[in-house]
Design goal:
Helices cover 7% and strands 36% of the residues. The protein is built from five helices and 32 strands. The strands form seven sheets. A six-stranded mixed beta sheet has the order 10-9-12-17-14-15, with no helix packed on it. The longest helix is centred in the N-terminal third of the chain and has 11 residues. The relative contact order is 0.14.
Length: 562
């Protein structure tokens, strides 16, 4: 079956680095027939034949080895979303950023190093659009001898996903070739089930049977590609207690707003009359771009004697375009900031960075017909630079001092100042296309202010940083002003890895750059990431041995240019 990569790790290396237990999983990426809606004889890419994929279960501080074998039709990579991978970006996964794809009929042994993470994270493919069906949960339990900061009786994992009518790699390949919009998804699913709102669904619906009086922990993962979602359960309150592998101060609410890439830990007490209640995901839409405005539902049903044929009650969720409710939910998030789980917010900032986030248009090349707005090509950018993915790994080029792969000149501020959220019609929408990376010194205290702009189809952007969690110290509408710094929350801001940048607004994050390596930054709406709404942080090494990159595995997936 071709060359199998990564087995050269010795037992000494396997065990000396691990802080907790060493766990082993086997992933086989392959095409699998999945019956969905009215489709027949359809195959999609999966791991181990499952949609969603297999659950990884570990404790805080464990080290996980996942042998990923690819027998699918094209190369893939796997990312461990929210795992910091301290000093070891070699297994982080973004295609041609930290590795080249795992070729078909080969394997790559990936090391996943857990340190401070505790709660719910997830893994997913990070090449082309294959994460639509290649994804699954990572459940990180408290280390032995410690407890959750809240109580519950049972726990369940809920994965929201988007389903497409054809192969997702073909969808994005076609869109990038023509410059047009990629296909919309045709359905949303909860744990692989579309619910009863779709034709040919045959009543396939995820359901949870609960006991009156018990409290349930829901680990909710948004693996969807391009749509943010509201979530609620009819007549039941939710208590949000964790997000992105870290604890929050309990937030009581009757709905969530969750973006692609985010995970949320939610307590639900079964305290209503015996019956059946819909739980529903419905999209949040704040853009003029085309969207999938369907919903998906599951059932929260009580055990006991009652009329099970009655139509379940529906939750009262915010309307699709309710920007106010989406924002009001997000600004309430606070870190737990307890003795056991303190917030350590950087306060002596040594590096201030401002990054504008834009949806752009590029001119159509000569002698080509393009399907973007007014015959242009869709594009996107950070600081007016549309990221061009190189043909070989940036990490390997950096580590081996290979020139010509990237430029280390990504700017600390936009190329020029304008009214970012005002009328931009007089400004050109084309961005500079290049592979630019942002260099950061080890141990700097970094603040990045992300500024939304009014170019193109502006909307909320879920921005994700690999290799780090960070504190969201401020957020607001309009253009950022230095006067807002005095209003930052530096006591208990949420500590997360993916945040929603408000449409035509700003968000400020802080972190200490104490994890050397090559780390991807991108919008988690995949159409925007594919158009270039990305960059790379390269965090340098410190002077001490434990501040330097760990060596790479002997066998990385091959890059054609190396």
């Amino acid at each position: 079956m071709g060359t199998f990569l990564g087995y050269a790790f010795t037992l000494t290396l396997l065990f000396c680095i691990a802080q907790g237990k060493v766990l082993h999983y086997d992933f086989v990426v392959k095409e699998t027939p999945i019956d969905m809606l009215c489709e027949t004889n359809r195959t999609v890419l999966t791991v181990n034949g499952l949609f969603p994929g297999p659950k990884i279960r570990a404790h805080k501080g464990d080290t996980i080895y996942v042998n990923v074998t690819n027998i699918g039709p094209y190369g893939v990579t796997i990312h461990w979303h929210g795992v910091r991978q301290i000093r070891y970006p070699w297994s982080d996964g973004p295609e041609n950023v930290t590795q080249c794809p795992i070729p078909t009929n080969s394997s790559f042994l990936q090391k996943v190093i857990l340190t401070e993470e505790e709660g719910t994270l997830w893994w997913h493919a990070h090449s082309d659009w294959t994460r639509a069906t290649v994804h699954g949960p990572i459940i990180i339990l408290p280390v032995g001898g410690t407890n959750y900061p809240y109580k519950f009786d049972e726990q369940h994992t809920i994965v929201i996903a988007e389903w497409y009518a054809r192969d997702t790699k073909a969808i994005i390949d076609d869109a990038l070739a023509t410059g047009g919009d990629p296909d919309l998804s045709v359905a949303y699913t909860i744990n692989g089930q579309p619910g009863d709102t779709y034709p040919c669904s045959d009543g396939l619906m995820y359901n949870i049977t609960v006991v009156q009086g018990k409290t349930y922990l829901f680990r909710i993962i948004h693996s969807g590609m391009n749509e943010e979602m509201f979530f609620g359960i009819a007549k039941h309150n939710l208590t949000l207690v964790g997000m992105d592998g870290a604890y929050l101060k309990p937030l009581k609410t009757n709905y969530l707003m969750i973006t692609p890439g985010q995970t949320m830990d939610v307590l639900v007490t079964a305290n209503q009359s015996l019956g059946r209640y819909y739980m529903e995901f419905s999209p949040f839409v704040d853009t003029d771009a085309s969207t999938n405005d369907n919903v998906t539902r599951g059932i929260f049903q009580y055990s006991g004697s009652y009329n099970h044929s009655e139509t379940p009650a529906l939750p009262e969720l915010p309307g699709f375009t309710n920007k106010s409710d989406a924002g009001n939910f997000t600004i309430q998030l606070r870190s737990l900031n307890s003795k056991e789980h303190p917030a350590t917010v950087p306060t002596k900032i040594t590096r201030n960075i401002t990054i504008t986030v834009s949806v752009n248009q590029q001119p159509c090349p000569t002698n080509k017909t393009c399907l973007g707005p007014q015959g242009s090509m869709h594009s996107a950018s950070l600081n007016n630079i549309s990221f061009w993915t190189p043909s070989i790994s940036i990490l390997q080029a950096y580590y081996n001092n290979i020139s010509g792969v990237y430029n280390d000149t990504f700017p600390d501020k936009p190329p020029f100042v304008f009214d970012y959220t005002g009328n931009v019609s007089a400004l050109g929408e084309a961005a500079f296309v290049s592979t630019e990376v942002l260099m950061i010194k080890y141990n700097e205290e970094v603040e990045i202010r992300f500024q939304g702009t009014n170019f193109g189809a502006a909307e909320n952007h879920p921005m994700h940083l690999h290799g780090y969690s960070f504190y969201v110290v401020g957020m607001g509408d309009g253009n950022f002003s230095d006067s807002y710094v005095s209003q930052y929350n530096i006591v208990d801001p949420p500590y997360i890895n993916t945040f929603g940048l408000p449409k035509n607004g700003w968000t400020a994050i802080r972190f200490r750059a104490n994890n050397p390596g090559v780390w991807f930054v991108h919008c988690h709406l995949d159409r925007h990431a594919s158009w270039g709404m990305d960059t790379v942080l390269i965090v340098g090494e410190g002077p001490n041995t434990d501040q330097k990159l760990l060596p790479p595995p002997q066998h990385m997936p091959p890059c054609s240019g190396l």
